[in-house]
Amino acid sequence: MVAVNLLPKQRLPDMLHRLEFHAMGCEMLAAVESESVSSPLAKVPEWFEGWEQVFSRFRYDSELTRLNEIHEEPVPVSEALFAVFQASQKAEQMTHGLVTPTLLDAIIEAGYDRPFDVLPHLGTPMPDSVLTGSTSLTAITIDNSARTVTLPLGVGLDFGGIAKGWAAHQAMKRLQPEGPALVDAGGDIAISGPRPPAPRAGASSSTPGPCRTRGSRACRRSRPTRWPRRTACRRTARRTPPGRRRSPRTRASC
């Protein structure tokens, strides 16, 4: 019989921090695994508030609302709005026009004219204009160097889930230096990779350079092994004086 000493159960430190809040008309969740108590998790609602002020079509003073009021003129936009516009272009190309932000007028006609959390859930049929009211983003003129967007007449933008997905990804990237992070923006989820392994004690993160100390163990490990070449063995020849017998200890040397 082997006696086993059971150690008292040790409680691991709670390193998973999470925060739930309301933004962009839906419930949000942000979580990060960090040993630091002072993580930037508390700033996530502020980040989403700033992004909502850019992308919300229900705020009369948002950047998107001001853009939708101007047609046939180039309008300078922020980096965030321009980045989401470029993400919308990729989404439209990947889905062959199925996902596009140019359905603003059609969506309003369908009854989506107020924030989602106060929208009455009525099962009304969609009018035909909703199904055929999309315009390709290629009709919109953009200037990458000046970062301007020119909307043609009759076209308005509503980024919707593309903006929420972009915001979730940006928040995740800001939390990632603290540890593995997850951001759920009403179903648009962004997840970072696992925490990178910590470097070993005494190990340098930089690429090792040439050996400076000749003969050191690290230097010998870093150098490739050189095997001796095979050469023909030659028998050691000695001149034996006349009258004496050659010694039997003469061996071949290679």
Tell me, briefly, the overall form: extended
CATH architecture name of the domain at 16-191 = Roll
The CATH superfamily of the domain at 16-191 is identified as ApbE-like domains
Distance between the termini: 61 Å
Structural description of this entry:
- By secondary structure, the protein is α+β, with helices and mostly antiparallel strands.
- It has a domain at about 15-190: T-fold (Roll), CATH 3.10.520.
- The protein is about 25% helix and about 15% strand.
- The chain is built from 7 helices and 9 strands.
- The strands form 3 sheets. Strands 1-2-6-7 form a 4-stranded antiparallel beta sheet. Strands 3-5-4 form a 3-stranded antiparallel beta sheet, with no helix packed on it. A two-stranded antiparallel sheet has the order 8-9.
- A hairpin with a 4-residue loop joins strand 4 and strand 5.
- It is extended and about 120 Å long.
- Mean pLDDT is about 75; it is low at about 1-15 and about 205-215.
List the helices and strands and how they pair.
Layout: E1 16-23, E2 26-33, H1 44-55, H2 63-68, E3 75-76, H3 79-94, H4 104-109, H5 128-131, E4 141-143, E5 148-150, H6 161-175, E6 181-185, E7 188-191, H7 217-222, E8 234-235, E9 252-253
Antiparallel strand pairs: 1-2, 2-6, 3-5, 4-5, 6-7, 8-9
Overview in brief:
The protein has helices at residues 44-55, 63-68, 79-94, 104-109, 128-131, 161-175, 217-222; strands at residues 16-23, 26-33, 75-76, 141-143, 148-150, 181-185, 188-191, 234-235, 252-253. It is an alpha+beta fold and 254 residues long. It is extended, with a radius of gyration of 35 Å.
